[in-house]
Structures are given as C-alpha cells and as structure tokens.
Design goal:
The complex is a heterodimer. By secondary structure, chain A is mainly beta. In chain A, about 10% of the residues lie in helices and about 45% in strands. Chain B is mainly alpha-helical. Chain B has a three-stranded antiparallel sheet. In chain B, helix 4 packs across helix 5. Chain B starts with a helix and ends in a 6-residue tail after the last strand. Classes of the chains: A mainly beta, B mainly alpha.
C-alpha cells in the first residue's frame, strides 16, 4: 500500500514536473569570480587622410577602465574584429570571446585641428546599445575627450559617475642638497598632463582641493616656517591663510568650501582648528594634551575626523563641530592615521601599521566596522579617495622611490602611476568638475 | 262422451231425442195427478173481526165494512154464477174430459203400445247401442289396445330408437369423448412431451446458457484478472518507469542545474560593489543547444553594476550546458537565476 502510494506520488510528481517547467527552473547563484569585467575596446577608426590623431583614444579609455579595477579590457591582439560602428558588430562573436560590453568609435576630421569623435557602447549579450555619443573636439583636447568617453562608459556600466576627467595634485621632490626642489603638481587622474603649480626649495606638504576644484590649499615651509596657502590652480594666485607659530599644517576644506580645518600648535600642542576663510577667524576644536592632527570633514560638514595619539598611539577620532566629545573610530592595530573619507561618508581610508610593522593603506567600513587592507606596501601613505569613491590614490615606494598608486576600493586592482622622475608623494584627488 | 259424440253423432242424437221424449211423458203424468183445493176461503172472516176505535172511524169502518159486504155479496153472486157456469163448464169439461180421457186412454194404450214398441225399439236400440257400444268399446279397446300397443310399440320403438340413439349418441359421445380424451390425452401427452421436451430443451438451454455464462464469467474473470494483473503490472511498470524516468530526469536536471550554476558562477564577475543583501533575478530563455536567447531582469538589485554583471554572467555562460540530445529541454527553456552573493566573511 505504501509502496503503491509512493509510486502514485512519484507518478503525480513526474506528471506535475512538466507543468512546472513553464515557470522554469530557478537557479541560485551565490558566488562569482573575483576579477574585473572583460570589455572590448576596439581601436577607434580614423576616416581622415594622412596621420591619425596623436592620441589613441581607445588606449586611453582602456587604461582608464583598467585602472578603475572594475574592467579588464581585452588585449588588442585578442580582438577578433575591429568594427568602428554598430552595424559592423557581430555580437555573438564578442560573446564567444567572453565579452559582455563592447566599445567602438571613430574619429572624423572636421578640419583646422578639429575632429568629430563618435562612439557607441554595446551590450553584446542583448545586442543593444548602452550609450552612444558624437562630439566635436580639438586635437589638443583629444585626451580629455578620451577621459570623457571613459566616464560615459563607466557610468553606463556601473551606474556610478566616472572620475576619469578629474585631476590629482601631488608633490614631487627632485634633486639633492641645494638642488632639491619641491613641486606641487597637478595632473590628469591617469598621471598625464602634469603641470607644476608651485616650486619651492623647502618642503611642500598636504595639498588639498577646494570642493569646487579650482583651488588648492597646501603647506609650504618656504622661509623655513610652515604656512598654509590657498592657491588658484588656473591663475596661480595664492593667499597665505595661516602662518602662526609652531605647526601650521594639514589643511582640509569644509564641504561648502568656506572653511579650512587645520592643525595648529600655537597653543603649544597640535590641536584641530577651524578657520573661516572669509573672516579669518579660527576656532579651536580639540583640547587634548596629545597630538591632534590630520583633520578631514564629514561630507555633511558637521564633524571632523582626525588623528590623535591621546590613546597612546595614533588612532582616528571623530569630533562634532558643534561641541561634544571626540570618539575613537579605529581599534585595530596600534597605528592608524592620516584618514580620508569617502564621498558617501561610509568608508574611511587611512594608514595602518600592520603586525609586520608595514605601513599600509586600510579601508574601514564604518557601518560594519570591517577593516580591510587595500595596499601591501611597506611605507604607504596619504590615501585619498577618488570623487566617486571607487578608487584610492596613495603614495608608496617603488624601487626606493616614492611613487603614486591607485587602488580600487575592493583592493583588487592597484596600479602605479608613471612619472618621469623624482619622488612623488602627498597625493590628493580632485573633486568632480562641475557638470 | 265427446268422443262418443264425435264417433257416433246419429246415435247420440237419437238417444237425446228419446230421453227428451221420456222426460216430456213423465211431466204430463204429474200434471194429471194434480187436484184443485177450495177449502181455504173461511180464513178471510177472521180478518174482519177487528176492534172499532171511534164513531167516525167506526162509521167509516162500518161503511167500509158494508161496502166490503156488498162487494162480497156481489162477489159471492158473481162467484156463484161463476160456480154455476163453472159447474156446467166442469160438466162439459168432464164430458170433454171423459172423451179426452177416453182418447187419452186410447192414446195411452196407443202410447203404451207405442211405448212398448218404442221400448222394444229402445231396447233393441239399446241393445243395438249396447252392442254397438260394446263393439265400439271393443273396437275402442282394440283401437286403444292397438293404440296402446302401437304406442307401446312406438314407445318401444322410440325407446329403442332413443336407446339406440342414446346408445349411438352415447357411443358417439363416448367415442368423441374417447377420441377427444384420446386426442386430449394425446395432445396432452404431446403437450407434455413437447413441454417436457421444451422443458428439457429449456433446461438444456438454460444449462447450456448457464454453462456458457459460467464459462464466459470464468473467461471474463480470468481475463479481468489477467487484465488487472497486466494493468497492475503495467501500472507498476509505468509507475516504476515514470519514477525511474523522474529519478533519472531529476538526476539529470540536478546535474545540469549544477553544471549551469557552475558555468554561470564561473562567468560571473561579482562586482566589488556587490554588497550584502544585493540580489538580482533574471529570466533567461534558451534555445535548443543551450544558447541564451534572451535575458530579462525581473527583479533589479538597484545597483547597475550588479545587474549588469548578472546579465553578462548569464550571457557569457552561453551556451549553457544542457542534457544531450535535447532531452528535457522544455524544463530548461525558461530559467530563472537569482544572484545573491553570500555575505563576506
């Protein structure tokens, strides 16, 4: 009886199954592979006569996307075809190459150093266009146009704003002895297009971008005394905003751009002050016999995160601007300093000294309290978030030389930026250009 | 009497006339013996001796009596005259009577003689009549006898005939009856025989039918049993096959589901932004061979990179591994994938 019942049940189930087939099977996917998303970026076509433009747009875009850590552009030699327009694309081929996204484009001469840049981003899975633009550019700005393409692609595929048209500021140190030169430099986010903002025989430190991206605040030891300057990037015009006795350091712009948080030791001990740039008035924020320095503003402008050794070793603390006690944020390790905060305020990056005594860039998820290492150097410092929060720029050492490196916030992709010579340190990632 | 009248009317008439004459003679004789009586008259004087009541009345009565006396005397005179006349009359009549008596005596003698003659004739007649009567009676007797005899004979004849008829009848009847009975008996016998045969036939038929029915029932039962057994075996076989098939199919489905999952997971570039709790559901349509024909997001994670990674994972995993020879393809034609990363450690 039970056997027959079982048979019946099985039979019923077997009969029922096909009915269920209409709804189809449901398959749970719980884990993927680590790694960047493959993307095919086909060299842009050139329809003009003679020499093609000096910038390989596709290469710039590929480098940008690769550096983000999110994408893995197919090596050119693996491209199976080189379409430059949508109607030349065989999506299936690209799918079989394992590519879900495809960027094609071309350049058309408009004369007098002007070009038309056309590009289309395709979803090879569904055979649909995800983005497509046509814009006129000058040959001189072709590289910036390439970063624009990167931004479009990045945003189309991730939903987040790309940061490829942003800039970075940093300090280079060259020469020795009397020939030593400190330069405050600004370059494209990929390190190209570097230009010098300030040159000094004395150290330059702590460049900080104003929220509008037009000005830089920095510390200069020129005259052998630390002072904080605010300088317009475009014009070079600068203003000394703090030259007090002792330490004048670590400027940080308030989100509204009207104030600077500074570290001053005018009272004998480094403390955090807030300087109103319009009135010049200063307000002391911390009152602790320990060192309080390296302030950064919460995105909402209502609190400041800083480094203090009031607990014995340097740790990160948070103090509200409208009064209240500072509260400690980091508890792992005996050295956590030099914080930067992500644009959404959810994450902190800072220098963490690990058990091996190596100084590495760490990322703290403020909600989960989870801390991860982003870098694996020995003396990594000055982490700075990209304005979209997807990457972190920091200073590291490579073959005995200070260099800059960018790491994706998941720590998966880390790439050194190439510079011609000298030590590079104190990087600061600019905010977005106003759209 | 009537028969007599009928048989001899003349004799009868004669007899009648004779009788009538005799009767007449007798009545005349009586009349001859009758004498008139005169002694009764004095009776009337007694009536006159009545008592007078009054003068008038007496007068009147006297008058009336005188009158009456006058009348009586006149009547007496009349009566005496009458009597005289009558005595003469009677004398004349007596003479007359005497002559008449003489005549009558002669007549009587004549009569006697005639009567003797008549008597003689009557006697003769009577004798003749008697003789005749006797003869007639004898004749009658003979006739009657004859009639009786005849009647008897007739009766006998009739009786005989009747008897014969009856006997015949009886015989016929008996015969008919016998025949009928015989017929009936025969018929009955035949009927009985027929019935018996019929009965026998019926019984035979019934028996045959019963046998047939039994045989059929047996056959049907046997067939039903065989059928039931066959069906049960078939069912069990089918059920087992179905179960086996289902098991095999389930195993196949499980195997290929795992293969598909594996391939999709290998092709899923889990974006770094995939935070805990992100999930994306896509519906995928396959074409035979496992090629992904269509990917449709039915439940977005809200994160474009995540959704995009899901689409690419499925699309790049194409063709998805399917059971060989298109088996169970229908089960795989429409797949639903739910991408939900395990929480990070």
């Amino acid at each position: 009886m039970t056997r027959r019942l079982a048979l019946l049940l099985v039979l019923g189930w077997a009969l029922w199954l096909p009915l269920r087939a209409g709804a189809g099977l449901t398959i749970e996917i719980t884990s993927g592979v680590e790694g960047a998303t493959p993307i095919a970026i086909v060299p842009f076509g050139w329809t003009g006569k003679g020499q093609p433009p000096p910038v390989d747009v596709a290469a710039v875009v590929a480098a940008d996307l690769a550096r983000s850590g999110r994408f893995a552009p197919l090596p050119r030699k693996e491209l199976i075809s080189r379409p430059t327009r949508g109607n030349e694309v065989n999506f299936r081929d690209w799918r079989l190459m394992g590519v879900g996204s495809l960027l094609v484009g071309r350049l058309l001469p408009l004369g007098k150093g002007r070009l038309r840049l056309e590009f289309q981003l395709f979803d090879t899975i569904r055979g649909s266009q995800l983005a497509g633009y046509s814009l006129a550019v000058t040959t001189a700005h072709l590289r910036q146009a390439a970063h624009y393409v990167s931004d479009v692609v990045y945003e189309a595929l991730t939903g987040e704003r790309g940061a490829f048209q942003t800039r970075i500021a940093y300090v280079t140190v060259t020469g020795k002895g009397k020939k030593r030169r400190y330069r405050l430099q600004v370059a494209d986010a990929d390190g190209y297009g570097q230009r010098t903002i300030v040159t000094s025989t004395e150290p330059l430190l702590s460049p900080a971008w104003s929220p509008d991206g037009r000005r830089l605040a920095y510390v200069s030891f020129e005259g052998r005394h630390a002072a904080v300057y605010v300088q317009e990037v475009a014009t070079g015009r600068r203003t000394e905003v703090s030259r007090d006795k002792g330490i004048n350091g670590a400027p940080a712009w308030s989100p509204d751009g009207t104030r600077l948080a500074l570290t001053l030791s005018r009272d004998g001990n480094p403390e955090i002050y807030v300087l109103d740039l319009r009135t010049g008035r200063r307000r002391r924020l911390t009152h602790d016999p320990a060192i309080d320095t390296e302030p950064v503003w919460e995105p909402d402008g209502r609190a400041i995160i800083f480094t203090s050794d009031r607990g014995g070793g340097p740790q990160l603390y948070r103090i509200p601007l409208d009064g209240g006690r500072a509260r400690r944020l980091t508890f792992e390790g005996d050295y956590n300093s030099s914080a930067d905060i992500s644009p959404d305020g959810r994450r902190l990056v800072f220098v963490h000294r690990d058990a091996a005594g190596h100084f590495r860039i760490a990322l703290l998820d403020r909600r989960s309290g989870e801390m991860r290492m982003l870098s694996d150097g020995v003396l990594d410092e000055s982490p700075s978030f990209a304005p979209n929060g997807s990457m972190v720029l920091y200073a590291t050492e490579y073959r005995g030389r200070g260099v800059l490196a960018a790491v994706s916030v998941d720590g998966r992709v880390s790439q050194r930026l190439r510079f011609q010579a000298g030590d590079v340190r104190e990087p600061a990632w600019s905010p977005f250009e106003k759209r | 009497m009537f028969r007599l009248l009928w048989e001899d009317p003349l004799a009868f008439l004669a007899s009648l006339v004779i009788h009538a004459g005799l009767l007449a003679l007798l009545s005349v004789g009586i009349d001859w013996n009758l004498h008139p009586s005169l002694g009764t008259v004095p009776e009337a004087k007694k009536i006159v001796q009545a008592v007078a009541v009054d003068e008038a009345a007496v007068e009147k009565e006297m008058q009336r009596l005188q009158e009456l006396e006058a009348r009586k005397r006149r009547a007496e005179q009349q009566r005496l005259a009458e009597l005289e006349r009558k005595a003469k009359e009677a004398e004349r009549r007596r003479l007359q009577e005497k002559r008449r008596l003489e005549r009558l005596r002669r007549q009587r003698e004549e009569e006697a003689r005639r009567r003797a003659e008549l008597e003689r004739k009557k006697q003769e007649e009577a004798a003749r009549l008697a003789r005749l009567k006797a003869e007639r009676e004898a004749l009658e007797r003979r006739r009657q006898e004859e009639a009786r005899r005849l009647a008897e004979l007739e009766r006998q004849r009739q009786a005989a005939e009747e008897a014969k008829r009856r006997a015949e009848e009886e015989r016929r009847r008996a015969e008919a009856e016998a025949r009928r009975q015989a017929e009936e008996a025969r018929r009955k016998a035949e009927e009985a025989k027929r019935r018996a045969e019929e009965e026998k036939r019926r019984a035979e038929e019934a028996r045959r039918k019963a046998e047939e029915a039994r045989r059929r029932a047996e056959e049907a039962r046997r067939r039903a049993e065989e059928e039931a057994l066959r069906r049960r075996l078939e069912q069990e076989r089918a059920a087992m096959e179905a179960a086996e098939r289902a098991r095999r199919e389930q195993a196949l489905i499980a195997k290929y589901t795992a293969l598909i999952r594996d391939k999709v997971e290998r092709n899923w570039r889990q974006p770094p932004t995939s935070r805990d709790g992100l999930a994306c559901v896509v519906q995928v349509r396959l074409i035979p061979g496992g090629e992904v024909a269509d990917v449709r997001i039915v439940e977005s994670s809200g994160d474009r990179a995540f959704d995009r990674s899901v689409i690419e994972a499925v699309g790049l995993a194409s063709p998805l591994p399917l059971p060989p020879n298109g088996e169970l393809f229908e089960r795989f034609r429409n797949l639903t994938f739910r991408f939900a990363p395990k929480p990070r450690r």
